[in-house]
Design a protein that fits this description.
With about 130 residues, the chain is of the alpha+beta class. It has one domain: 2-Layer Sandwich (60s Ribosomal Protein L30, Chain: A), CATH 3.30.1330.40. The protein has two helices and six strands, in the order βββαβαββ.
């Protein structure tokens, strides 16, 4: 019999604004919901620069994964949605600096727009206890 699904919540990342969990965990896997550049206290930063939004979104994903017992080395896959393919090189540089040598599988999807006018959204899948 498999483990029950666990709902993950942390105050280190913004509370969900809809009907979803910050993350769910099952059988050692952690599935982090898409994170925008919303600050952990719930205030919006949609008027911030692309870099500031990207850094906040990555920090939010990492905080949710940490709350589930998954550090950066346990991240298996990341999907990033960015407004405009021209932002790809900048995103790649920010991402590499924040992941500090950890290289999960990754997909970057250029999109025309995101909720509230944000410029980046990131989700991830990780595994608990990896080191």
């Amino acid at each position: 019999m498999s483990d029950p699904i666990t709902r993950i919540t942390t105050e280190a990342a913004p509370s969900p604004a809809g009907h979803y969990s910050q993350a769910t965990a099952w059988n050692g896997l952690v599935f982090a919901s898409g994170q925008l550049g919303v600050r952990p206290d719930g205030t919006h930063s949609f008027d911030a620069s692309f870099e500031e939004q990207a850094r906040q979104a990555i920090e939010n994903v990492l905080a949710v994964l940490r709350a589930a017992g998954c550090g950066p080395e346990g991240i298996l896959r990341v999907t990033a949605y960015i407004v405009g393919a021209d932002k790809w090189p900048e995103f790649n540089q920010i991402y590499a600096s924040m992941f500090d040598g950890v290289k999960p599988a990754r997909t970057v999807v250029p999109v025309p727009e995101l909720h509230h006018g944000y410029l980046v959204e990131i989700d991830a899948i990780g595994v608990r206890g990896a080191s």
